């Protein structure tokens, strides 16, 4: 399995030195091999307990939106703005 650590580091905005690349490649290959050996629990062979979801209840906060937004490095129309992380 070929793992491109430089591309992964770029997508994750990680600064990995050239000296560390071989170690990360080896570690990622070990992780991929371990995951590929996990049993397949899909289909009828696995009967799990369904996850119980809590109700989504809107509650008033003691902190105003303006107070929260003053800590945001950037906001757009009253919402937090973050850098794009997905390439198109």
Automatic annotation (TrEMBL):
**What GO MF terms are annotated?**
transferase activity
What is the protein's quaternary organization? Heterotrimer of A, B and C subunits.
Name the Gene3D superfamilies on file: Glu-tRNAGln amidotransferase C subunit, N-terminal domain
Catalytic reactions on record: L-glutamyl-tRNA(Gln) + L-glutamine + ATP + H2O = L-glutaminyl-tRNA(Gln) + L-glutamate + ADP + phosphate + H(+); L-aspartyl-tRNA(Asn) + L-glutamine + ATP + H2O = L-asparaginyl-tRNA(Asn) + L-glutamate + ADP + phosphate + 2 H(+)
Name of the protein this chain belongs to: Aspartyl/glutamyl-tRNA(Asn/Gln) amidotransferase subunit C
Q: Which UniProt keywords apply?
A: Transferase
The record, for SUPFAM superfamilies, names: Glu-tRNAGln amidotransferase C subunit
Entry-linked InterPro entries: Asp/Glu-ADT_sf_sub_c (IPR036113), GatC (IPR003837)
Role noted for this protein: Allows the formation of correctly charged Asn-tRNA(Asn) or Gln-tRNA(Gln) through the transamidation of misacylated Asp-tRNA(Asn) or Glu-tRNA(Gln) in organisms which lack either or both of asparaginyl-tRNA or glutaminyl-tRNA synthetases. The reaction takes place in the presence of glutamine and ATP through an activated phospho-Asp-tRNA(Asn) or phospho-Glu-tRNA(Gln).
């Amino acid at each position: 399995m070929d793992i491109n650590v430089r591309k992964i580091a770029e997508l994750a905005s990680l600064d990995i030195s050239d000296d560390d690349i071989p170690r990360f490649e080896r570690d990622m290959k070990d992780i991929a091999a371990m995951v590929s050996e996990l049993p397949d629990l899909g289909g009828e062979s696995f009967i799990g307990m369904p996850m119980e979801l809590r109700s989504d209840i809107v509650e008033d906060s003691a902190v105003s939106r303006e107070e929260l937004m003053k800590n945001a490095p950037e906001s757009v129309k009253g919402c937090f703005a973050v850098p794009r992380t997905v390439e198109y």
